[in-house]
Amino acid sequence: MSLSQEYFQRALKVIPGGVHSPVRAFKSVGGQPLFFRSATGAYLESVEGKKYLDFCQSFGPHLLGHRDEEIAQAVHETVDLAWSFGACEPYSLELAEWIVEKIPWIENIRFVNSGTEAVMSALRLARAATGRSKILKFEGCYHGHVDALLVKSGSGLAGVSAADSAGLDPLQVQQTLVASLDDENSVEQIFNQHGSDIAVVIIEPLPANFGLLVQRETFLQKIFSIAKKNGSLILFDEVISGFRVGLGGMAERLNLIPDLVTYGKVIGGGFPVGAYAGKKSLMDFVAPVGPVYQAGTLSANPVGMVAGLTTLKKAHRLNLFTDLENRTNRFITQINQLCEAKNWPLQAISMGSLFWLHDKTSSTIRALKDIPSSQSKTFKAIFHGCLEQGIYLAPSGFEVGFISAAHTTDLLDQVVQKLESVGQKIFHGK
Ligand SMILES: *Cc1c(COP(=O)(O)O)cnc(C)c1O
């Protein structure tokens, strides 16, 4: 038994399924999860001492790669000064001021500890600000694990949702309506029926938690106009796209300004930080100014604040967003050329420094229904083939990959070469 396997057997005894988040299990790819002891730059090191080039990057926070030196230094300095006070401090102020200065439409920001918490708080605010109770989400978008958003499309009537987890409050599930991505009609139908009850439309402007489902700009514009007409707010959940596809996230790329935005992942530079933000007039609903209660013992912890600010400043200074996007484009172009030349049933798609390997299809994948049914099976083979070659992908065919500043063009070129041997093995004879 390997050391990872030994650890996993022990973990199974004291932790549900041996993991603290289901996406860490190898359930959809088979086998047992590896245990990692350390990480540097683009690499993970397993407890056995084997190195893996890491495309998971903790599911997105590490824009600069693992333990970037500049962040590490700032974090060490901060740890020597402050951990958490439960009182006012300048660290979060500096991060807030920097973001407000750089992103013109953000006037106020409140820090929390995770993306889930940011979304949960923003929903409460939206309900208070509109005096309405229903929310509209899209199937295939993930917004964390708050009850109201762990729902999927129910069968039958337009917009009716069904629980996507056991143990949800059925009243909350009822308050959430579900529309289809890439489908203006589904949004219009739901608004025709429930328009005056919908507090907020929540969407990942770049859905990246169920594959990478790049939306048509006209679709997103249409959602804005329908919501506006009906007096509903728009919440862009940029937990994964924020500070990754550009400083101002998808909102900036699309030139669509949401009423509220949520951040997570990159904003904490690898530490637990989330945030929700928007115009002052709206954020003024939050306590202690307004009636919406939201609090946090460890919110805006100095270490996370400093890690986040150092990350954002460095990315901005080096114009990393464009640089990473170019590297990612080159990477997926090479993969696609390879797969086409070999006639392998695999394609890659990217946006910014996010990419997704998916089963070949002639149509553009914009909604769940467009994802080829063999995706899981193909990915399972790719995943294990890559692992053998020392490449770690997130262990599910519906998770995206992340390119960090530590993923140099040289490293990515080597990955393409390795993918060639992986492909020869899996697609041999196809
Ligand atoms: C990751 C993610 C969340 C949840 O964030 P956590 O920090 O895991 O709670 C919410 N929304 C989106 C778009 C995400 O990618």
Mean pLDDT: 97
Radius of gyration, whole Å: 22 Å
Give me the number of helical elements. Answer: 13
- Broad structural category: alpha/beta
Major sheet characteristics: 7 strands, mixed
Shape: globular
Helix content: 25-40%
Count of β-strands? 16
CATH class of the largest domain: Alpha Beta
Keywords:
13 helices, single chain, alpha/beta, seven-stranded mixed β-sheet, 16 strands, Aspartate Aminotransferase, domain 2, 430 residues, binds pyridoxal-5'-phosphate, Aspartate Aminotransferase, domain 1, four-stranded mixed β-sheet, 17% strand
Tell me the layout of helices and strands.
Layout: H1 3-14, E1 36-40, E2 43-46, E3 51-54, H2 69-79, H3 90-102, E4 108-112, H4 115-130, E5 134-139, E6 151-153, E7 161-163, H5 170-175, E8 176-180, H6 184-194, E9 198-203, H7 217-229, E10 233-237, H8 249-254, E11 260-263, E12 274-278, H9 280-283, H10 302-317, H11 320-342, E13 346-351, E14 354-359, H12 375-388, E15 391-392, E16 401-402, H13 409-427
Parallel strand pairs: 3-15, 5-8, 5-9, 9-10, 10-11
Antiparallel strand pairs: 1-2, 2-3, 4-12, 6-7, 11-12, 13-14, 14-16
Helix pairs in contact: 2-10, 3-10, 6-7, 11-13, 12-13
Bound molecules: pyridoxal-5'-phosphate (PLP).
